[in-house]
Amino acid sequence: MKLEQQVRASRVAGFSAAVQFILQVFHYIVPYHWVASRLARWGVKGQRLVVALPYLWLLLFFFIPFLIVLKISFSLTQLSMPPYQPLVQWTGEQLNQLRLNINPGNFQYLWQDSLYLDAFLNSIKVAGIATLITLLIGYPMAYAIARSSVQWRGVLMMMVILPFWTSFLLRVYAWIGILKNNGLLNNFLLWLGVIDEPMVMLQTNFAVYLGIVYSYLPFMIMPLYATLEKMDLTLLEAAKDLGCRPLRAFLTITVPLSMPGIVAGCMLVFIPAVGEFVIPSLLGPSDSLMIGKVLWTEFFNNRDWPVASAVAIALLLVLVVPMVCFQRAQARTAEAGEA
Amino acid sequence: MAPTPIDPVFVREPWHDPKAEPYIRIEQVTKRFGEFVAVNEVSLNIYRSELFCLLGGSGCGKTTLLRMLAGFEQPSSGKIFIDGVDMSDIPPYERPVNMMFQSYALFPHMTVEQNVGFGLKMEAKPKSEIADRVADMLKLVSMSQYGKRKPHQLSGGQRQRVALARALIKQPKLLLLDEPLGALDKKLREHTQFELVNLQEKLGVTFVVVTHDQEEAMTLATRIGVMDHGRIVQVGTPKEIYEFPQSKFVAEFIGSVNVFEGQLIDDQSDHVRVACPELDCPVYISHGISSAPKATLWVAIRPEKIELSLVPPAQQENWARGVIKEIAYLGDLSVFLIRLNSGKTVRVTRPNRWRHEDEHMTWEQEVFLHWHDTSPVVVSA
Amino acid sequence: MKSRTAWFRLSSLVLGFAFLYIPILSLVVYSFNKSKLVTVWGGFSTQGYGKLFENTQILDAAGLSLRIAAINATGATILGTFAGIALARFGQFRGRTLLSGMTTAPLVMPDVITGLSLLLMFVAMEQALGWPAGRGMTTITIAHITLTLSYVTVIVQSRLASMDIALEEAAMDLGARPVKVFLLVTLPIIAPALASGWLLAFTISLDDMVIASFVSGPGSSTLPMVIYSKVRLGVSPDINALATIMVGLVTVGVLLTGYLMFRRDRLRQRDRQLSESLG
User: Fold this and answer.
1) Which of B97, B155, B191 to mutate to test the interface with C (most CBs of C within 10 A)?
2) Could you tell me if B81 and B43 lie in one domain?
3) C54 pairs with which residues across the strands?
4) Does B86 share its domain with B205?
5) Out of C164, C171, C268, whose CB is closest to B103?
6) DSSP reduced 3-state for A244
7) pLDDT at A66 exceeding the cut of 50
8) pLDDT tens, A262-298?
9) What is the mean pLDDT of residues B338-353?
């Protein structure tokens, strides 16, 4: 998790410098001293407040909501607002007339209806293959950036990060214009004479892979770059000195040493890609089976909140395993003195 | 009635004065971090205007002891008194103690003047007073012309001076220095050592310095406390520590030394004889010791106190015979490693006083070692 | 041999960046297209921009999104800073593991799960407490703060971890109480990280479609929601115009940052040479 945090943090590294300048100006404007003496006079119990505020917020808006999702995933659907039955119902005056409406049926339903199982399997397959492609494209780029001169590295990494700051939705939208039947790519290929009539590319699985690879490529490059840049280049020289050819040195030295970056990058792409909604719904076929899209449809179109909740819980269970494995692996490398 | 004149020795060395009141009293202080005992039952008295050095290897507890004096750590048990006041419940920001950090910890977003004036600003002193005292302080450390600079615009030596000025401006009762010269290069360090001593003598502030560098401790300190595994193993002036180490650890930690295991065979009040199996003849020491008869003990002899000759010495005791195995020429002196008949290797240093030695010594040559009867000391394990 | 690997690195960079930037460039180029067909070039025109500025739906949504993003960024920065300080400085307090789990989990949580769980929470709260009455700007802001405070926490925590604790101890040693230490020393030093966190929280909020869709109510459509509903129907020139404006703003910001960073590095370098030459 630590490396992953660094990766996320590096997403903003570019901006920190400009802001440092602004804050130096701020430092002369904001009356820190006045604020300090005021707070001290009020006798604010700083430490407890500092922990309690974010703690309560996250408990209320992150932790408890999951318990509610869990609860509703065991509820029955009913036509009302909200469209589910309470788990515990009083049917009379006395306690023994309490009725429990626990309904594991939603999970049975997920298991029995092949739609959901197929959607899960398909999402994992699509996310897995897309992650692999992203790695194959991202590794050479990260490697090339890490081995370029120091002045260029900053510029190139900024170019990798820049698309992040533009809207994700609009970057996916750009591919619609490119992949359409009368879009850029088809026109270009027709002009080249490679094809005689437009290929259908939009609303295919190909477009979904392309969209995921395109959107998540910077997530792959950043952790890879971070590990490759830190690598001691004399190790490669030592390997060559001992008679190792460049390709072999790359495979036996560079690749194993960049393993933490590879794992972090793959997880950063794979985990969100499994639950991706926007890309399959804009670029994929209308009947594409991606679990994020299924959840969305259950919720917004079928208004079946209990089944949507069950899908969310199941998705969470699927993702918890890679997340925990990843965290363990990170912890182990950290213990071994890595990173 | 005329006041009793104070023995001048007690002014310079108050620790010998039974009536002197210690300025800092550390009583039975222990600090545990979970299972790990960082400081173990340390008791120590430090007197006014002393420059006391805590010397020890990494992890010996010296920094933890310093941080307890500053108030960043609370003792697990025991008490610390400064000028008679119990420091137990006093937070760092209310202690009459200031610290110079190993990293200097200069605030990067403040100028030199703001850094030095920070402590006075916390006391809400009037601006004019702060300005005056900052100017005086910067003059004292000869940094007056750098007042408007930021820390990153200073060299290492300049930062060290600013850190010192910042720690001294509140006129603390006690100044703590954590490896004060550790970040400086060798030449600058030597120069700064003397500056620091002069400044301390001029201001009369009590200094406690933590260092792992024995040379630094010897140069700076009025007294040194040697620490090992959370305990203070010996306290004394630099000369006492070097010439009369009480234990094998202290003898070996400070400088280099040859140690021979032996047994007491003649125990008199004015001299002792020790039989060492590794030496051919007994060691005669011209001062008495307190040790149980027949107990195993160690005799320590410093390398520079052993003489070499090509002919057998006239004396009956305090000599040995061996073969030169290694010679290292270091310029000012040469180091000889000599193997005795018993297989023990002895280290001997000789100053290179003349360009050409009259007695030429070389590898595999047989030589004789001898030493004066005041040179060996008996140390415990 | 040497030139072959250099050639390989150069070509992977050229192709990679072409892949990253051609779609963005195509958005910009076709925003000036006269033809309504967007992808067929029909001559230069700025009518896409005219249409954009006539589209009150998009403009309203943009205004709402900017307001939400600003409130969210401020709230997330405050809460995230607190959480970051707690995790980096307070040692082992009770419930630390849960707090660190709750601040890192949203980083990788799929949006659909976060959105659904927050919506169900809001519905349950409305039933039980009567607040928040209905869903709209308030619920979107709360949801976004929950999502983005994790990012701020991570940034602040890593900044504090790399900051020399001796600086805070030195301030305390010189007589500053804890609150003063924070305001006079810690805050100014970590301020750039806070600003980065604020900007990141702002951008993420401005970019989120999925969570906002779950927790928004009638009449509170954010910009990404409007874009999504328009984009689903196909390409249109005013969206291209909007994209161009966004890309332009970001590019200017990044170039400015780059320039400032370059200048600061040069100044630092000069200072260092100066101080070294003075000894």
Assistant:
1) B155
2) yes
3) none
4) yes
5) C164
6) coil
7) yes
8) 988 888 889 889 989 999 999 998 888 888 998 998 8
9) 90
Kindly tell me if the per-residue pLDDT of A315 is higher than 60: yes
Q: Which two tokens stand for residue B53?
A: 């050095």
Q: Identify the helix (H) or strand (E) that includes residue A261.
A: helix A259-274
Same domain, B52 and B76: yes
Q: Are residues B72 and B177 in the same domain?
A: yes
pTM, 2 dp: 0.81
Return the residue in C117, C147, C180 with the most chain A beta carbons within 10 A, the one to mutate for interface testing.
C117
Res C43 pLDDT > 50: yes
Position A97 scores a pLDDT of 53
Instruction: Tell me the DSSP string of C187-207.
Output: HHHHHHHHHHHHHHHHHHHHH
H/E element holding C270?
A: helix C237-278
The distance of Cα B130 from the centroid of its chain, to the nearest Å, equals 36
pLDDT tens digit sequence for C195-217: 888 988 999 999 899 999 999 98
Please tell me which residue of chain B has the smallest CA distance to C186: B107
Q: Examine the domain organization and report whether B260 and B239 are in the same domain.
A: no
Amino acid at A162: L
> Which strands sit side by side in the sheet containing B283-285, from one edge to the other?
B283-285, B272-275, B258-267, B296-301, B377-379
Taking CA atoms, B195 is separated from B97, B141, B189, B198, C222, in Å, by 21, 9, 10, 5, 67
Segment A34-54 shows an average pLDDT of 66
For C185, the closest chain B residue by CA position comes to B107
| Same domain assignment for residues A96 and A240 | no
Region label for B26, one of left (φ > 0), alpha (ψ between -120 and 50) or beta (otherwise): beta
Distances (CA, A) of C52 to A170, B362, C59, C238: 15, 95, 8, 5
Radius of gyration of chain B (CA): 25
Structural domain for A100, as ranges: 76-104
> Does a structural domain hold residue B303?
yes
Does the pLDDT at position A125 exceed 90?
A: yes
Shared domain for B244 and B260, answered yes or no, is no
The per-residue pLDDT for A31 is 54
In a 13 Å sphere around the CA of B137, the CA atoms on its Cβ side amount to 27
The domain of C145 spans 56-234
Task: List, for residues C113-136, the tens digit of each pLDDT value.
Answer: 999 999 999 988 888 887 787 788
Q: Considering only alpha carbons, which residue of chain C is nearest residue B99? A: C173
Between A59 and A187, the more confident residue is A59
Taking all residues of chain A, what is their mean pLDDT, rounded to a whole number? Answer: 78
Give the domain range for residue B375: 256-379
- Report the pLDDT value the prediction gives residue C279, as an integer from 0 to 100: 47
CB B98, CB B173: distance < 8 Å: no
Q: Judge whether C23 lies within some domain.
A: no
- pLDDT tens-digit map of B364-379: 889 999 999 889 998 8
Fill in the amino acid letter for A141: M
Query: How far, in Å, CA of C213 to CA of C238, rounded?
Result: 22
pLDDT at residue number A339: 33
What is the least distance, in Å, from the CA of A9 to any CA of chain C? 5
Residue in the structure block whose two tokens are 């020393």 = C185
Copy the structure tokens of residue A200: 């259908």
Span of A108-117, A150-159, B321-330 with lowest mean pLDDT: A108-117
Structure confidence at residue C1 (pLDDT): 46
Query: What is the pLDDT, as a whole number, of residue B355?
Result: 75
Instruction: Identify which of A17, A143, A187 has the shortest CB distance to residue C257.
Output: A17
- Asked whether residue A70 is assigned to any structural domain, the reply reads no
B261 with B236, same domain? no
- Chains adjacent to A (≥3 CB pairs closer than 8 angstroms): C
Helix axes A2-10, A205-230, angle to 10 degrees: 100
For residue C224, tell me if it sits in a domain: yes
Chain A residues within an 8 Å CB radius of C160: none
What local confidence, expressed as pLDDT, does residue C66 receive? Answer: 94
Strand B223-228, strand B51-55: pairing: parallel
Interatomic CA distance for residues B197 and B190, integer angstroms: 11
Q: How far apart, in whole angstroms, are the C-alpha atoms of residue B156 and residue B181?
A: 10
